[in-house]
Specification:
This protein is α/β, with parallel strands linked by helices and 231 residues long. The protein contains four helices and seven strands; from the N terminus they run E-H-E-E-E-H-E-E-H-E-H. Strands 2-3-4-1-5-7-6 form a seven-stranded mixed beta sheet, sandwiched between helices. Strand 3 and strand 4 form a beta hairpin. Helix 2 packs across helix 3. It comes from Danaus plexippus plexippus. GO terms for molecular function: proteasome binding.
Length: 231
């Protein structure tokens, strides 16, 4: 049974928006793994990385360090195993937001079995809401589950808490909610950056290396920001 229920609209609602119309999937595809998802008995950590820049960092890692073990191509979801460890990395980008709960359900077995879960995503700095004027090119915020405050958490992630009215949505929000529902530790890290997510950011690279998700992240995505091409 699905952990995430359906949204029921009140009968008294009179306004009908464009997105209320049910648009059937022309392909009729149901999201599923390319092959059966085999999860070992022991999973030390699961890292869920959302966004093009983070996905490129993982994709460019050497095969001797990290191995692609499964995919959900319809959602641009890739699942990797860090070799010689019990740690896994999931990357996702350019997916339909309405498919978030379905994607989380696919990840549910490994989400629940993991000893710890950390999600990381990048968002435009313009989306960060605060009463204080900031000139920083990057703002990093963190959101924990209740269980993450317990002493057994091993990650040294001393970052400020994500404050209201800032919110999380999508797959990473679903992952954190699921862990909190089962009273399991998890941390969500949100990078608000000035440029697009394809822009090379040293702080993000340092974090990925600190968590031993990557050996190095010298990715240079093909974008105008990283070229001398002018139109």
């Amino acid at each position: 049974m699905s952990t995430f229920g359906e949204i029921s609209e009140p009968n008294s609602r009179t306004t009908w928006e464009d997105w209320d119309d049910e648009i059937p999937d022309s392909n009729g595809n149901i999201l599923q793994w390319h092959k059966p998802l085999l999860i070992p008995e022991k999973v030390d950590a699961l890292f869920v990385l959302e966004g093009k820049y983070l996905s490129d960092c993982i994709r460019l890692q050497h095969n001797n360090y990290i191995e692609l073990i499964n995919t959900v191509l319809e959602a641009n979801l890739l699942l990797f195993e860090i070799k010689s460890s019990n740690r896994y990395v999931c990357t996702i980008k350019d997916y339909k937001l309405l498919q978030s709960s379905e994607i989380v359900e696919l990840l549910k077995p490994i989400i629940i079995k993991s000893k710890d879960v950390i999600t990381i995503q990048t968002k435009p700095l313009t989306e960060y809401q605060t009463d204080h004027v900031t000139s920083q090119p990057l703002v990093l915020k963190k959101l924990n589950t209740a269980a993450s405050s317990k002493p057994h958490q091993t990650w040294n992630l001393n970052f400020p808490k994500l404050e209201q009215p800032n919110i999380m949505c999508g797959v990473n929000a679903g992952v954190i909610c699921l862990r909190d529902h089962f009273d399991l530790p998890a941390s969500a890290l949100v990078y608000y950056i000035e440029h697009s997510e394809e822009y090379q950011t040293d702080e993000i690279q340092k974090l990925l290396e600190h968590l031993k998700i990557v050996q190095n992240c010298n990715s240079h995505p093909n974008s105008i920001l990283n070229s001398n091409l002018y139109i």
